[in-house]
Write a structure and sequence with these properties.
Chain lengths: ~250, ~375
């Protein structure tokens, strides 16, 4: 759709920068010399074969995984062993998981308010007001008093998105947010993400939903064996892939 | 093409041989010849044991009197229990001060009920009071030495009162210590981890009797003369450490059952280690291991009887010492039944409460 419009939303401010990032699991080299700049308002799709390191890459950005070499700079803060830096980065980055990871012993509302109250020190009233607004935005405010176990998968994932948004992050990471969902629920989650993209959120999204990629992405990264093999704007990427590995991958998923 | 028009079929009652008492009996008790035989044997055994027991304990029993002459000998002689009831409850606590014990237990009973019953207001305030203020109040009530209350030395404490003191303090301390140890054992900090492992494995590796002997016999030998700790306190510390090691392993089982995604979601939201433990991980982990926690509580409650070997007079010890009274030779069965009944009622209540708690905390996930 609005290719030009989405392009305009991207500003020159760098939100996330990776410089020669390397990571090993034991002897296994998962990330090899990753270089990446994410600008404010960009929507980046990361795809690639299973086990190529997509999850590891985005999990390094909020320090769920530790990288061993190179620099990761998020909103101007360098991720190192300093807990304060990690803390500040995590406040600025929201993350949505494949398995939702809602807190099952808390209601939807409590899921959304916990971190704003205890991390951002908001008052309960403020936190609840924000939570209701965001739950309305993902169209699930009527379920606020329910427990996650009483919701469908699509509803749970929308709550998970709202929960992240409650922290007012400037960057959102999505790790295969629709892979655990039944086909009829995928759309409701993607719709929420499309909305988010149009509002100018900086997004990094691991997904194989190519329709979604074409609609919202302004860049697609293709990874294989721990490296970024190819990087292009979506139409070019799908219609005119450059490397053989990309061609092979696209022929398998399309 | 044929068109089928169906009207909804009415709901029919189930066939009569599957409902009611007869249906239930046919299905559960007499479904096969072998089953019928076992049912009959079972009924026969119940018939030969239950009525005589009830007869002995209730109908033929003697309840009132002041000496063994009041007992006919055909049934239980509960006079033995009623005459010595105060001693069984309070040990050698001076009778003029009994009210202090009653007040202390009534107060904690009321506080705990307040916390356990649903829909009571100001639970947080009452909880803080129970944890921080009540122990001080209870100390002065039991021991005295302030506010004009005369001191009652701990060697005079005994009976059910001592059992309850040991059990409640043991439970209140063993759970938090156990949680800290469990977190320590799973921690990535080497020092916290090894300290927890050593503590847990040490206390789990020795029998409680040994612990109690050590605390009462060995410790005083090694301790300097001027630093003598009360015997009851030493026994109590032994029990707490011993049970917290078990509690730690129970809690660790729960922590391990929590999916990694819960930790990650908490981290990704920026919650610190302690906040994510307190709000996210522990509530779920403790809920999972309620049966194990209550199991440990019940074991602790019954293990307190072991203090009798170091000369503390808990309920069992007081009752046993009463058997030695020449006036009451031959009534030990009544004494043991009485003790067993108290223990059973207490443990069964804990078990029922834990089942209620599990149902209440169920929020529709596995
Ligand atoms: N904790 C770990 N220890 C050792 N190896 C790991 C660990 N986590 C992941 N790996 C390995 O690292 C590689 C990259 O994993 P990652 O989860 O990033 O892949 P992915 O691209 O997200 O794959 P998928 O599409 O299946 O989610 C895989 O080969 C995996 O086996
Ligand atoms: Mg992955």
């Amino acid at each position: 759709m609005t290719e030009t419009q989405t392009q305009q939303n991207v500003s020159a401010e760098v939100m996330v920068e990776l410089r020669n990032v390397n990571k090993w699991y034991g002897d296994f080299h998962v990330l090899k010399d990753i270089n990446l700049k994410v600008y404010k308002g960009e929507r980046i799709i990361i795809c690639g074969p299973s086990g190529c390191g997509k999850s590891t890459l985005i999990r390094c950005m909020n320090r769920l995984e530790e990288h061993q070499k190179g620099d990761i700079i998020v909103s101007g803060i360098t991720l190192d062993d300093d807990l304060k830096h990690i803390d500040r980065v995590r406040r600025d980055i929201g993350m949505v998981f494949q398995q939702f990871n809602l807190f099952p012993h808390l209601t939807v509302m409590e899921n959304c308010c916990l971190a704003p109250i205890w991390v951002q020190k908001k008052s309960r009233r403020d936190a609840e007001a924000t939570a209701i607004r965001l739950l309305e935005r993902v169209q699930i405010a009527d379920q606020a008093k329910k427990f996650p176990g009483q919701l469908s998968g699509g509803q749970q994932q929308r709550v998970a998105i709202a929960r992240s948004l409650c922290m007012n992050p400037s960057i959102m990471l999505f790790d295969e947010p629709t892979s655990a969902l039944d086909p009829e629920m995928i759309k409701e989650v993607l719709d929420v993400m499309v909305d988010l993209a149009h509002e100018g959120m900086t997004m990094l999204c691991v997904t194989h939903e190519m329709g979604f990629a074409k609609t919202v992405a302004n860049r697609v990264l293709f990874m294989d064996a721990g490296e970024i093999i190819e990087e292009n704007e979506p139409n070019e990427f799908f219609d005119n892939p450059q490397s053989d590995r990309t061609k092979l991958f696209l022929s398998q998923i399309l | 093409m044929a068109v089928y028009i169906t009207t909804p079929s009415p709901a029919l009652p189930p066939p009569s041989n599957s409902v009611g008492v007869l249906g239930w009996m046919r299905k559960n008790l007499f479904s096969s010849p072998a089953n019928s035989i076992f049912t009959l044997i079972g009924l026969y055994i119940l018939f030969r044991t239950i009525p005589p027991t009830i007869d002995w304990a209730l109908f033929q029993a003697d309840w009132v009197g002041t000496s063994r002459d009041a007992c006919s000998g055909e049934g239980a002689c509960w006079v033995f229990v009623t005459v010595r009831f105060q001693q069984f409850m309070f040990g050698f606590y001076p009778p003029s001060e009994y009210w202090r014990v009653v007040v202390a237990f009534s107060l904690v009973g009321a506080l705990v009920a307040w916390l356990l019953i649903e829909r009571t207001p100001k639970k947080g305030l009452v909880g803080i009071f129970t944890i921080f203020c009540y122990p001080v109040i209870a100390y002065f009530l039991f021991y005295g030495g302030a506010f004009g209350l005369p001191v009652v030395e701990t060697y005079k404490w005994g009976g059910l009162m001592l059992t309850l003191i040991l059990a409640t303090i043991g439970m209140f301390c063993a759970l938090p210590i156990g949680i800290i140890l469990a977190l320590g054992r799973r921690s990535s900090m080497p020092i916290a981890k090894s300290l927890s492992v050593v503590f847990i494995e040490f206390w789990r590796g020795v029998p409680l009797i040994t612990v109690l002997f050590m605390s009462s016999v060995m410790l005083p030998i090694f301790m300097p003369e001027n630093l003598q700790i009360d015997k009851l306190l030493r026994a109590l510390i032994g029990i707490i450490f011993f049970q917290s090691a078990y509690m730690a392993e129970v809690v660790r089982g729960g922590l391990q059952a929590i999916p990694k995604g819960q930790y990650e979601a908490a981290e990704a939201l920026g919650l610190s280690y302690w906040k994510s433990m307190f709000f996210i991980i522990l509530p779920q982990a403790l809920k999972l291991v309620i049966p194990g926690i209550v199991n440990t509580f019940i074991a602790l409650f019954k293990d307190t009887t072991l203090v009798l070997i170091i000369g503390l007079f808990d309920l069992l010890a007081v009752v046993q010492s009463a058997f030695a009274d020449a006036k009451w030779i031959g009534y030990s069965v009544e004494g043991y039944v009485f003790v067993a009944a108290i223990y059973w009622v207490s443990c069964f209540s804990m078990s029922r409460y834990s089942q209620y708690l599990e149902r209440k905390l169920h929020t529709g996930h596995a």
